[in-house]
Fold each of these.
Amino acid sequence: MFKVGKEEVKAIEEVVLSQKYFRFQGENVPTNTSQCEDEWREYLRASYCLLTTSGTNSLVVGMAAFGIGTGDEVIIPSYTFVATASAIMQVGAIPIIANIDHTLTLDPNEVRSKISPRTKAVVAVHMDGLICDLDSLAKICDEHNILLVEDAAQACGGEYCGQAVGTIGAFGGFSFNVDKVISCGEGGLLVVKDEKFHEQYLKSLVTHDTACQFGRTLKNKISSLPKFFGLSTRLNEINSAMLRVQLQRLPEILNELRNLKSDLMSYSESIGLTVMKGHDDQGDIGSVLHVRCQDPVDTMEKSKVLLAEGFKAGPPYLRPAHACWQWFEAMKEGAYFVEGLNPYNLSDQTYSYTKQDFLSTLEILGGCLRLELNFLGDQERVELCKELLKKIAAK
Ligand SMILES: Cc1ncc(COP(=O)(O)O)c(C=O)c1O
């Protein structure tokens, strides 16, 4: 989260004093949650938006609503937060990992090589605000009649060719946990662009709040659906009130982040550093700068220069749960949060993942210096950062 102030406090205070914490207050009665969803729909130009308790839950609810489940395979990148894989397993499907390329996002050729008759979806993850090659991925998905899903947890406000990320695939998920560009503590958003997926949206509504089938508020809206048990992943009014204020701040934050990143990118390139880029420089949210290094040793040496001055820098795999080999251990038969429901136990296929299959990812991540641009508005830090980049370039 980059900015927070008294406006958030006031919005939360109003909810607390009203004692109306629940997202539903009667049929067609606007609440902070419903208005926040409307505001997101307008901002993203999407047909449907559904707030949830987390980014992970937005993916779980979306996958369930779009029919991804037992026996299905879902292709994900080797560089993503563990939640992308865990959400897939929570609906009973199997994550199939494809290597990234130097854009730090899914390599479309790798995706092609992983497609099997069981493939149901590809999840494009816009890591660190870098935008995926959505044209190529959409083409592959169309050819094979599979779903393109966007995990835009780390790219809120990002764009691909002028269109909001999260609205390009069949559905997208955002996260509003504290590490994200805007936050309400914890929260998530499921986004569905196309009106043709109205039925899936209704299913996601029930899935995110199983109890809504038994109350009056949504009775008419969801009457076409058969009764089924879902989850309880509703966002509450306190979080929604805060998120509404944060959403208002988003354009300004993005503007500042993009200006800062573009300044640091031009500077880095002017002193001979190579910046690693995604597939849409304008649409990149600007939260992280990635400098290409020669090898892991070079990356560590350069990182130390920035770390010594308190910058958050290092190869991406030093983060605890973002490189696929960090979560292999949980992707196999055996331990699972619901005993007996482990998708690997239930599958008639055998799946195994080894680090050797991801040597190219290891090489790419090892040769990448990831610098978080968490010093918005602090010109002294910007100048210091430039000084240190110059030192690094001379190494
Ligand atoms: C790429 C990615 N996907 C999904 C998530 C899950 O979001 P949450 O922590 O809100 O469940 C995160 C969170 O950091 C993420 O980075």
Note: The domain at 6-246 is CATH 3.40.640.10 (Aspartate Aminotransferase; domain 2).
Amino acid sequence: MKVLIVYYSTYGNVYKMAQLVAEGVKEVPGAEPVIRKAHELIPTSVIESREEMKAGRDLQKDVPYVTQDDFRDAGAFAFGTPTRFGNVSSQLKNEIDQLSQLWLKGSFEGKPAGVFVSTGSLHGGQETTALTLMAPLLHLGMVLVGVPYSVQELFTTQGGGSPYGPGHVAGGDNQRPIDENEAAICRALGRRLAQLGLKLEAK
Ligand SMILES: Cc1cc2nc3c(=O)[nH]c(=O)nc-3n(C[C@H](O)[C@H](O)[C@H](O)COP(=O)(O)O)c2cc1C
């Protein structure tokens, strides 16, 4: 079963989270992570004028863009986004907004989905972003999956991560590394999506 990990990342933090979610998926026999990026909406001229944006883009140059086939073929989904004013990035939402044909066919009904988020600051809107990203996933018929408190790192994290999903605090300069607690919560979501996807698929 494929677990589609679809994300948007300007500076690379959410991309690194996607890789950690994939590590968790790989721990589950029978599950295969598929990492795909959302199409960019920032004009190339703007990216070219900003060194840190160019670095983020170059880091992800080998990641394929997500396609309708990727969405159709997956048995579980992880959606990753940086916070934009406490909400989902337009790049990731743009991909979700193109799913109406698959939605009409009921392609997503009964399939598990989780979300992961990066913010600049500690209280910059991780939970609002996670919750607002969940609304369209419910419309698509997906079964929402969070992170339960049996994942001990939810108690110890000083950065991101909550029952709503993995989180990372990137810092004002976007350079803060993903710490061990944040990484463990990313892996836990990947594992859980893979396990639940396999169970639901078997029905
Ligand atoms: C337009 C814009 C809006 C943002 N809004 C917020 C915000 O509301 N709260 C916050 O903590 N960070 C905010 N940020 C910072 C981003 O969330 C941060 O750069 C991102 O998490 C880094 O992830 P990335 O490296 O994957 O791009 C904003 C950044 C931009 C460009």
Note: Strands lie at 2-7, 32-37, 76-82, 112-119, 143-144, 167-169.
